[in-house]
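User: Study the fold:
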Amino acid sequence: MEFSCMDFKVGKCQGQKLVDGETMPLVLQPPVADKADINSLLLALKTNREWFEQLIIKNSAVLLRGFHVKNAQEFNDIVEAFGWDDIRYVGPAPRTHVYGRVWTANEGPLSEFIYYHHEMVLITESPKTLLLYCEVPPPEGGETPFVPSFRVTERMLEEFPEAVEEMDAKGLQYSFTALSKNDTSSMRGRGWEDAFGTSDRAEAERRAKALGMDLEWQPNGAVKTVLGPRALTRVFEGRKGRRMWFNTVVGMHGKELSSARMADGTEIPEKVVKRCEEIIEEESIEFKWEKGDVLFFDNMALLHGRRPSLPPRRVLVATCK
């Protein structure tokens, strides 16, 4: 699909890459100066909704820049313009509701690197689209790097074909321990009561089961969640038959509160995990946030993370089916 829309013009940003003929991120700007306001943007998005949705799938990452989006309310208007269904975040990251369908992104310490992941990759239903809005750009660092997931699969198959096919055939099992209460000093510090929206253990177990999890209660009040089997790679409709590295093996393997192994209990070789970590970083793409930026991710196609940052930094998020 060639770019053609009178309501946007193509821009550039530092860090862009061409991946298999696709510009990532594709930068869209106002066509003229007097079309840089939120009302003009909302009209353009609603008028060209189907075209824009196809563009997100084609380029995987689309960055709206120069439209002077001022606050969470205007960002929420952008989210609502598409009519996409909301999907409630489930995961370990501490987050706070801001407005409408808008939440803070991970509130863990800015000094920590948030490792690459597909949003809610472990849940039976993941968001199709992830939207990010930069309200306060960081003075240094704080980028949101992302990785074309199919490139990871391609390179892992080149180097470890037998290990990849074994993991894919057996499936993966993950475990993660959620604390009894929120710990905002940790990027994975969301307590189980907040995560499941209840303080009743039986209700938490019911909600966990609906999400494809089993719970094991710990003596200290924490809970160990066990998930699996889960796929190593997946192919999603409309994305050129690409085999996405749709897992969180590197992010959870051998960590203090989490683990990742094959579903039959077989350990994943350390050298495979280590090399995968290197490949993911080698394939990463990133740009510097500017105030008012709105970024659309195809969550089926991209892993994303967060670089360490100096404060202040405020990036808001919305997740859509």
